[in-house]
Write a structure and sequence with these properties.
The chain is an alpha+beta fold. It is built from two helices and four strands; from the N terminus they run βββααβ. The radius of gyration is 13 Å and the shape is globular.
């Protein structure tokens, strides 16, 4: 059961919940989902508590885990609806590991 605080902003956010084609799920401050190495299956805006500019920001690890649940729920809903095109984003595969730790987080394995 999702809390209201985890509902995504209706205006869209820079920060994104990401699901990679590999199945990895996580949170990206930049919205680029670089931990997907250019193979993004789905992106969605995050809850206000997962935007870095808010005082209520819960942190990258908490947001990654919340995104994992949110993207999983959305995936199940997508399967029930008509299929939509997956977003495929090709990006540079060179990622600064320090930036990755500070700006993105992959959800804990279940």
């Amino acid at each position: 059961v999702a809390d209201e605080e985890w509902l995504p902003s209706i205006f869209g956010t820079t920060e994104k919940c990401c699901r990679c084609k590999s199945g990895a799920k996580g949170w990206s401050a930049s919205g680029k989902c670089s931990f997907c190495w250019g193979k993004v299956a789905k992106k969605k805006s995050v809850a206000s508590t997962c935007t870095k500019k808010t005082k209520a920001f819960k942190g990258s690890r908490a947001c990654a885990n919340a995104c994992s649940t949110a993207v999983l729920l959305q995936t199940e809903a997508d399967l029930a609806d008509s299929p939509e095109e997956d977003e495929e984003v090709q990006e540079s595969t060179s990622v600064d590991p320090v930036a990755l730790v500070e700006e993105e987080a992959v959800a804990d394995e279940e």
